[in-house]
Amino acid sequence: MPAVERAAALMAAAALAGCSLAPTYQPPSVAMPADYEQVQAPAAAAPLPQTWWQAFQDPLLDRLQQQLLQANPTLALAVAHYDAARAAAGEVAAARLPQVGFSTGPVRQRQSDDKPLRSATQPAIYDSNTATFSLSFDLDLWGRLRNAAAAGKARAEASGDDLAAARLSLSQQLTGLYLQLRGTQAQQGILHGSIEDYRQALALTEDRFRGEIASELDVSRARHQLASAQADLDALDARNELVRHAIAELVGAPASGFALADAALPALPAVPADLPSHLLQRRPDIAAAERRVFAANAGIGVARAAWFPQLSLSGLLGGQTSGGSALLEAGNRYWALGPLATLPVLDGGRRKAAKAEAYAEFDAASAQYRATVLAAIRQVEDQLTLLRQLDAQHGHEQEAVSAARRAEQIARDRYAGGAVSYLDVVSAQTDARQAQLGLQDIQSRQLQASAALMAALGGGWSR
C-alpha cells in the first residue's frame, strides 16, 4: 500500500476511534422549587459547619459521630462496596490499553508414525521450544470500550455517593437517637421532681388522715398518684436503655456496659429564612442516581457499537527451535502483524435484545432519579412543615404549662385550707405533670426535626 493510502487509512481509523454511539447525555429534568414555602425563622441564622451535627454544640455528640465513622460495621461494608466498584471500573478501563503478553513453552513431544506429510527423515521424538511476545490493541472505532469505561467510572462514582449516603443516614440516625435520649432524660428529671412532690403530698395527706382532717380516700388517691408517676418513670428508664443500646450498635460498641453521662437538651439551631432548592443537589442519593443514569446512557453506546465491525491490531514476535539452537537467532525468529476484523452476522437476536435492555435500563435509571429527587423535595417540605407546626405547638404548650402550674398551686393552697377535696389537687397535679412532659416532648421533637431537615438537605443548609 502506498504511503499516502496508509496515512489516509490511519487518519480514518483515528477519526472513527473518536466517535461514540452513546446518545448525547442530558440528566432527567425534574421541576425544582425555587425555595421552600414553609420556612419561617429568624433572618440571621448562622450557617452550619461542615460536620452538620456540630450545629447542636454538643461535644459528646461530636465524639460519638467520630466513633461512628471509625467503627460502624455498616459503614465499613459500604466502604468495601466502594472499593470493589473502583476496582471493577479500573478493570473495564484497562481494556482500552494495549495488551502485551509473553509465553514460553519448552516441550518434548512425539509425533505419529502415520502423520500426514511426515518425511522419512523427521524424528518421532523431538523438542519444540518457543518464546513469544504478543501485542493486541482494539481500535475501538465506535466507542464501545470508551463507553464501557465511562459507565464503569460512573458506577464507581455512584458507589462513592452510596457511601456518602450511608454515612449521612447513619449520622442522622445517631443524632436522632442522641436527641431522643436527651429528651427522655429531661422527662425523667420532670418525673423525679413530681415524685418528690407526690411523696410530700402523701405524707401531708397521711398526717391529715391521722388528725381526722382528711379521708382514707384522699390517702388512696395520693398513693395512686405517686405509684403512677413511679410507673411512668420506670417506662422512661426502659426506653432510655433501649436508646442507649441502639447508640452503642451505631458506634460499633457492645450494648452491655455502654453508658452515656446525663446532659441537658442542646439548643435548637435556627433555620435560615430561605433555603434554595439547589441545596438538594448535594444529596448523595441524588448524585448516585444521576451517575447511574449516565452509566445507563453509556451502556446504550456499548449496545449500539455491537452492531458494527470490531477492528483490532495484533502482533507476534518470538522464536522457535527444536532444542539445539538459540531461540533468538535470526533463523529461528518468527513474527506476525496485521489487523483483525470481526462482525457477527447471525446471533439469534442477541444484539437486538441487548440494545433493548440498554434502553430499558436507561429508562429505569431515569425514573429512579426523578423518584429520588421528588422524595428529597418531600422530605424537606415535611420537616419544614413539622418544624413550623411544632413551633406553634410549643407556644401553646408553654401557655398550658403556666396555667397548669398556677392551677396546681391554687388547688394545693385551697386543699390545705380545707376548701376543696384532694381529688382537685390530684387532678391539678396530673395536669401540670402532663403539660410539662408534653412541652419537653415538643422540644425534643423540634430538635429531631431540625436534624432530619439537615440530613434531607444533604448535610445542613450552608451554601
Structure report:
By secondary structure, this protein is α+β, with helices and mostly antiparallel strands. It has a single domain (24-99, 143-309, 350-456), classed as Outer membrane efflux proteins (OEP) (Up-down Bundle), CATH 1.20.1600. It is built from eight helices and four strands; from the N terminus they run H-H-H-E-E-H-H-H-E-E-H-H. The protein has helices at 3-17, 59-71, 73-93, 144-210, 216-250, 284-305, 350-416, 422-456; strands spanning 99-110, 125-138, 310-321, 333-342. It has a four-stranded antiparallel β-sheet with strand order 1-2-3-4, with no helix packed on it. Helix 5 runs parallel beside helix 8 (422-456) and helix 6 (284-305) runs antiparallel to helix 7 (350-416). It is elongated. Residues 6-17 and 38-48 have low confidence and may be disordered.
List keywords for this structure.
single chain; 463 residues; alpha+beta; Outer membrane efflux proteins (OEP); 4-stranded antiparallel sheet; 59% helix
- Number of DSSP-assigned strands: 4
| Name of the top-level CATH class | Mainly Alpha
SS content category: alpha+beta
Helix content: 55-70%
CATH architecture: Up-down Bundle
